[in-house]
Amino acid sequence: MTAFASDAALSLPAGALEQLRTALGSGGLLTEASDMAPFVTDWRNLFHGRACAVARPATAEACAEALRICAEHKIAVVPQGGNTSMVGGATPDESGRALVLATSRMNRVRAIDPIDQTMTIEAGVTLKAAQDAAKEAGLLLPLSISSEGSAEIGGVLATNAGGNNTVRYGNARELVLGLEVALPDGRKLDLMRRLRKDNTGYALRQIFIGSEGTLGLITAAILQLQPAPRSIEAALCAVESPAAALRLFAAFRSREPSAIQAFEFMSGVSMGLVNTLIPDAKLPLSEPAAAYVLVELASPREGGALRELMEEALGDALENGLVTDAVLAESEAQRGALWKLREEHAEAQKRAGASVKNDVSVPLSAIPEFIERASAACEALIPGVRVAPFGHIGDGNIHFNLVQPEGADGAAFLARDHDIMDAVAGIVRELGGSFSAEHGVGQLKTYMMPDWRGGAELDVMRRIKAAIDPQGLMNPGKVLPAL
Question: Domain named FAD-binding PCMH-type: which ranges (predicted)?
C-alpha cells in the first residue's frame, strides 16, 4: 500500500522528512493536521499557528539529531514542553514552516542522590511527577506552580518559572546545578555537574535558563532538592486591602522569616470568580472580603512550634485589626482545599471570559500603590472591567489580570490588550518594576523589549543569539523583537 504524505509533511524540505523519521523512530514524528492540532494552539487560546511537523524525540540524542537535521535543511524549530505558556512562547507562527519539537517522551528521572540532595531529570518529566519522585525519596522539590500537573521541567527551566515558593527558595534558576542542552547545530552541551562551587569561566547554564528556547533545547537538568518538611501549617486570612496584606507579611517575617514557605495574595474580585465558577472551591470564611492572604509555614522539624507561631501571629493580627477573619487548616485535606482556592484563579478567569494578563513585579513596598493606581487606570480605560489581581505578594510578583466586563464582547475586549498592558506597564515602570516577572516574554510581549531593554542590554541579547543560533532557527519571533 502506498503511503501519502500530508500537506504539512510536503512543506518539509526534500530529504528532511525521511531523515527525521529515521532519527525519531516509531511514533516520533507527527505530520497529520489532526495529530498536530494540540501542539499549535496555546493554553489561553490567544495564538493559533501551523507546523510542518511535530517531532517527539524519546532521548536527548534523538533530540540533538533532530536539531542537526533541521539546521541542515534550515527548518525553524519551536520547542514545546507542557504547552502551558501564558505568552505564546511555545506556539508556532502561521507560516507552517516551523517544526514543533515536543519533549514529553524524554520523561525519565535518571537519578536521585539523597546525600547530595539532587535530582537528575529529563526535560519531559512534569513538575508534579518530579515533585512526587522527590517525595518518595524523602526530599522536596520546592518549585510549585499552578500548572505543575502539565508543565514539564524543560519548559519550566526555559522560562525560569517562579511560583508559590519563590519567597523561600527562589526562582527555577536558583535550583539548577547542572544542565544538558541540545544546541541549534545538533551538538550536545553537557553542563551536568553536581557542584555547588565551580568557578571555571562563564556560567553557561544560566544563559539557557530563561531563554525561552531561543538558544537551544534543554534536554535534562540536575536540580537541587531540599529536606522534606515534617511540619506544615496553612491559613487563609481575610484582609481589608493590599496594604494590610503586606503588613501581615511583615508581621510573619519579623517573627520567623525562615518558616515562611508561601505568602499569596488574592483580590476579592478574583476569589469571587473562583467561588462562582470552580466546583468544590468554596470560601471557608463567614463573609466575603476585599482581599485574602494564604500563608503557609513549613519546617523539616516535627512538633507544634509552627502551629504556635501561626496562632500567635494571627491572634495578634486579629486583635489589632490587620486580619478580619481567618481559618487554619486542620488536616492535609483542608490544606489542599485552601490551596485549591489559590490555584484555580487562572482557570476561573478563563471561564469568566476574555482576560488580559499582566505578570508584573515591583518592590514589595510599592505593591499597594501599584494595585491602587493600576486599578484606577484600567477602570477609567474600560468602564466595568473586572480588576482581578492575585499572586506572590511575598516576592513582589502580582498577576494583575483584567477580565472583560460582564456581557461584553470578548474579542473587542482583547483588541484593547496593548492599551491595557501599556497602561499597567507605565505604572510598573514608574515604580521600578518589570513587565514580566515569571511568565516570560514569548511572542505576546516582544513589542515591549526595545523600550524596556533597549540599547546595550538588548544588543548583548542579540549578540548572544547570533553567536549560538546564527541561522536564527530556534523559536523565531519569541523574546527578541524583529529588527
Answer: 47-228
pLDDT value for 9: 58
The pLDDT of residue 461: 97
**How far is Cα 98 from Cα 41, in angstroms, rounded to an integer?**
14
pLDDT, position 4: 42
Cα-flanking dihedrals φ and ψ of residue 42, to 5°?
-85, 170
Q: CA 206, CA 175: separation in Å to the nearest integer?
A: 11
> CA-to-CA distance for 270 and 424, rounded, in angstroms?
18
C-alpha–C-alpha distance, residues 482 and 179, integer Å: 29
Which grid cell is 338? 485552601
SS3 321: coil
Task: List the domains of the chain with CATH numbers.
Answer: 109-227 (3.30.465.10), 231-346 (3.30.70.2190), 353-444 (3.30.70.2740)
Residues 209-238 have pLDDT tens digits of 999 999 999 999 999 999 999 999 999 999
CA dist 222 and 11 (Å) reads 38
Please say if the pLDDT value at position 6 is more than 60.
no
Question: CA 347 to CA 337: how far, in whole Å?
Answer: 16
- The reported pTM is 0.92
